[in-house]
Amino acid sequence: MAAPTPVRRGAARHSELFDALVELLLTEGFAHLTLDDVAARLRCSKRTLYTLAGSKEQLVRAAVVRFFARATERVEAAVAACATPADRVAAYLRAVAAELAPASARFVDDMAAFPPAAEVYARNTAAAARRVGELIGEGVAAGDFRDVPVSFAAEMVTATMVAIQQRRIAGATGLADAEAYEALATLLLHGLARDPATPARPSAGCRS
């Protein structure tokens, strides 16, 4: 078997560094960290960091983009493993909660205070809200949810998700973002549930 080329080894090293950077920022936040601090934590040189991005600001934004991209992949995988609309909505919101769970309060606060990172979070929140709206629409069309106005349900979800992203929910309730998404999942699913007098389709659950 041929040995990996230097290009492939370099790409793998960059990927490992980015993953380690994301983990570091999730745990410690980033506003207080200098590039020297980051290099020391990742056990690499500042020169190596500059191969990833040209400045600390660019490095942070790239790490936040990577965090949400990887999270989106895992969330959609959780949805794909479910058979019914109710299971898919629950899986989506609870997978979002699980992805946000490792994020420290310091990281989330730093994102909110750093416009390039806040923009990435806002963009992903908007995309997530649209996705939940799609899933609700599928459930209503299939007869698995109440015949609620899909646009209203989607707008309600969007408003709540934006409030979570903007830290208004945390400020008002003390809930972490992951906890708020879990609460949203519970409230939404109970609100969408069919009338108990109307037989519901059996749930096939999610594939493990």
Which descriptors would you attach to this protein?
208 residues; mainly alpha; Tetracycline Repressor, domain 2; 10 helices; 0% strand; elongated
Can you tell me the CATH superfamily? Answer: Tetracycline Repressor, domain 2
Cα-based radius of gyration, to the nearest Å: 20 Å
Which structural class is indicated by helix and strand composition?
mainly alpha
Tally of distinct domains: 1
How many DSSP helices? 10
- What is the top-level CATH class? Mainly Alpha
Overall pLDDT confidence:
86
The rough form would be described as elongated
How would the blueprint of this fold be written?
Layout: H1 6-28, H2 35-42, H3 46-52, H4 56-80, H5 85-100, H6 105-113, H7 115-142, H8 150-165, H9 168-173, H10 177-192
InterPro entries: Homeodomain-like_sf, HTH-type_TetR-like_transc_reg, HTH_TetR, Tet_transcr_reg_TetR-rel_C_sf
Protein name: TetR/AcrR family transcriptional regulator
Pfam families: TetR_N
Structure description:
- It is a single chain.
- With 208 residues, the chain is an all-alpha fold.
- The chain has helices at residues 6-28, 35-42, 46-52, 56-80, 85-100, 105-113, 115-142, 150-165, 168-173, 177-192.
- The chain has a single domain (6-192), classed as Tetracycline Repressor, domain 2 (Orthogonal Bundle).
- Helices cover 74% and strands 0% of the residues.
- Helix 5 (85-100) packs antiparallel against helix 10 (177-192).
- The mean pLDDT is 86.
- Pfam families: TetR_N.
- InterPro entries: Homeodomain-like_sf, HTH-type_TetR-like_transc_reg, HTH_TetR, Tet_transcr_reg_TetR-rel_C_sf.
- Residues 11-71 form the HTH tetR-type domain.
